[in-house]
């Protein structure tokens, strides 16, 4: 690689990293805060929460990375154009591939990296996160760690305790069970404990109040009563994995007995092709960025900032790709569109680069924008002109 290519690549990588890290930190923080209930609800340690936060990070890298590349390329090339470096490169007779080659090589490497992240690393981290959360909530006792507070164990089942004691013992239990529409049950007990297996809540010295649909209430006192938790513990301790939690090889050949696959096979098809097509985003966005600001231009040329233009185009392609993915979830006939959106956009950008063309607005739109700019200058530029 030539010295000039190394210089351009080094500047782009520096700006790419500068843009990637803050945006990644912001999105990661918002995702982590959504899981803060792991500590408040299940009584997990801060170490467990930090481990969970670390596993969330790889699941968002592949989404942020292409846009950070757009910012890195457009900012670097725009700065070089403003400093007349691109004009000097053209005047020296250097071919355009001097600018394009290192950036396309970087984009190609990031595309391969994105495929690995989307295909294998991200689903593995999702599985670990789901397993960790399911394990944390499997124990009923950990779910009611806060005293004198109603805690919903699952829809229709609430538990409150007055005091927690050493071991697995509790005092002042109140269990409200309305999961069965045929009857509402309310259990009161002076004390109780969850078995070590987590299969039953043993209550002592209490009563159960049963309310029938017609309003009749029956009260039964008991010395000892075991509230069955076996189904609840198994359900809460078992993580359910969907299409987004499976790796690329599994999506290519799903288990025909997988309940999620049997109920929604199109989700697996859409997820498979989404990951493959999304891996092209770094290369496609790099081509768009080079198409917009890859050549020397006059400072007097009135146009939207190159970074804004490139980000707007990239976001449009990203949103269109997600919309097509939602269509594939309803019908596999839309699968070709998942590849047509990024590859078609990249092909158009590559064609314009090869033919040395610049993207321009249609004449009608350009005339309208020019009219708006002229009217704005007349309204705001009168005072400035007289002062000059």
From TrEMBL:
Pfam families: LptF_LptG
Membrane topology per record: Multi-pass membrane protein
Keyword Nucleotide-binding assigned: no
InterPro entries: LptF (IPR030922), LptG/LptF_permease (IPR005495)
Residues spanning the membrane: 12-29, 49-71, 103-121, 276-294, 306-325, 337-354
Keywords annotated in UniProt: Cell membrane, Membrane, Transmembrane, Transmembrane helix
Localisation per UniProt entry: Cell membrane
PANTHER family xref list: SLR0882 PROTEIN-RELATED, YJGP_YJGQ FAMILY PERMEASE
Protein name per the record: LPS export ABC transporter permease LptF
Organism in which the protein naturally occurs: Rhizobium rosettiformans
Lineage of the species this protein comes from: Bacteria, Pseudomonadati, Pseudomonadota, Alphaproteobacteria, Hyphomicrobiales
